[in-house]
Amino acid sequence: MKKIIINDNSWQIRIAIITNGKLQNIYFSAPTHEVLERAYFKGLVTKVLPGIQTAFIEFGQQKAGFLHISEIDRELAMQKISIHLEDDEEEQPKIEKKITQKRDISKILKENEPILVQVSKEPVHEKGAKLTTCFTLPGRFIVLMPNIPRIGVSKKIENRDERTRLKNIVRERLPEGMGAIIRTTSDGCAEKDLINDLTYLVQEWHSIEKRFASAKPTEKIYEDLPLVLQIIRDHLDSSIEAIITDSTKSQNELYKFAKNIAPEFAHVIQSYNDTINIFSAFGIEKQIEQALKKKVSLKSGGSIIIESTEAMTVIDVNTGRFIGKTNLEETILKTNLEAAEEIVQQLKLRNIGGLIVIDFIDMGIIANRQKVFSFFEKILKERDKFQSVVLKISEFGLVQMTRKRSGKTLVQELTTDCPTCHGLGFIKSYQTESYAILRAVKDELKTISPGKKIGLQINTQVFNYITSVEYDAILKLENSYNIKITLLSNKELPVDKYKIEKN
Q1: Coil vs helix vs strand at 456
Q2: Separation CA 205–CA 197 (nearest Å)
Q3: Which of 84, 413, 419, 460 would bridge 491 by S-S if both were Cys, CB 3.0 to 4.6 A apart?
Q4: Averaged pLDDT score across all residues of the chain
């Protein structure tokens, strides 16, 4: 059974989802941080680049968002092209209005025109937000797609008759030109509840259209519920044993919200009143710290190593101290199966998306490769709600996959670049820094008159290294340039800096 644990402070709200005490997901919200994902803006087209089929859209943020042609819905594209062709009719009377050729973004969008956009991905690193016109509006049972006329059903609803029932209910009541994704929470729900959810979302969409018409350029015109209420909306079902918050105010708000959208589950809202921090009491603090580390230990003694770059994430599986009971192949298979389950957990917990390469331990038996691959796919489908595409294990034991990005990773959320290594993950050794300083000092000695005395201030660690290992180098510099050098230890100096005092 799952629990939702909420640590509510005025400066930050943290929401954890745990299953049998194990952390599954962690979310953060702060008053100082504006959540862009899923929000709607009245954007302004600033640049259209046909070479990369992308437009840059100003929408009131520090960096412009980017809108690729693949994120422009077909109906809008045809409508825009038709409008622009009508505008150019006098100059180009022979252009046909029927759109048959390959889509070209320069024929769809023009600079300085307003456009309704939704943020599909938050800004990452140096990239601006990813925008879309393939709009979605999430509800409890349905995700409305106001301009994509298709109906989809969650793969986790496996009963064919139930899938058909839900589709028919939604199809009969969807306005023309709209579509919907029927969520897992719809499984077994009453027709009345499904219709109410759909009606509410359609009304929300019409209000967005009205706001767009009257809004100023770059203005935000719609945003999703606050994060805590989003989590409740998206996760509140029969699998939730308790929702526990350490704030009385939060408890009252959550109870009212649950009473409104799912009164049958309102009783699971509980208050936490102990003096111990709620995340510490449920063992969540330690699990968050562990999730920031590269190495994740497996129960058998094996481990996985997770390394991320801007472009991709690489996961390496190791047997560690696990040696098995009968043979090497058994050891490898057991470790890979255990790692496959843990990898899915870590992808969710760390919110890792984009391109992912997994280096499973190479297996000699083809049937074992297939077993690991099938198990990995099964766990992904059962436990991860984000869309992913997985390629089969290669001869080298590698699995390539993509997973939908959503917001910041856990590392991006909680860490910043180290001020010493500046994000490299390593620093130069004292030996290397000492040699670099000796070279720099040698160049400076060439400009100092012979017979002088100088004081050379260096970091304490570099001082210790030079005096204990490389003091002969100082003596040789003194002899070569006829200059007396006095070494001075200065713990305030960075390891790569030095100061010369001329006497």
Answers
A1: strand
A2: 13
A3: 460
A4: 89
- In the DSSP assignment, the letter for residue 266 is G
Q: Is residue 55 helix, strand or coil?
A: strand
Give the containing element (helix H, strand E) for 469.
Answer: helix 460-469
User: CA distances (Å), 47 to each of 43, 71, 105, in order?
Assistant: 12, 16, 11
CB of 50 within 8 A of CB of 40?
no
Pairing mode, strands 398-403 and 137-138: unpaired
DSSP for 112-125, please give it. Answer: T-EEEEEEEE--BT
pLDDT of residue 102: 66
The token duo for 225 is 């519920």
Cα–Cα distance for residue pair 302/338, rounded to 1 Å: 9
- Do β-strands 114-121 and 130-132 pair in parallel, antiparallel, or remain unpaired? antiparallel
Nearest to 444 by CA among 498, 363, 369: 498
Termini Cα distance of the chain: 75
**What is the SS3 assignment for 157-212?**
CCCHHHHHHHHHHHHHHCCCCCEEEECHHHCCCCHHHHHHHHHHHHHHHHHHHHHH
Query: What's the pLDDT at 124?
Result: 75
DSSP classification of residue 321: T
HSE-up (13 A, CA, CB side) for residue 328: 6
Residue 51: CB partners within 8 Å, gap ≥ 6? none
CB 133 within 8 A of CB 67: yes
Q: Given pLDDT bands bounded at 50, 70 and 90, which one contains residue 344?
A: very high
Separation of alpha carbons 365 and 372, rounded Å: 11
Q: Which two tokens stand for residue 440?
A: 């720099």
CA 10 to chain centre: 24
d(CA 118, CA 14): 25
Structure-token pair, residue 75: 């109906």
CA proximity to 38, closest of 305, 433, 486, 407: 407
Helix (H/G/I), strand (E/B), else coil: 256: helix
Identify the pLDDT of residue 200: 93
Torsion on CA atoms 353, 354, 360, 364, rounded to nearest 10: 140
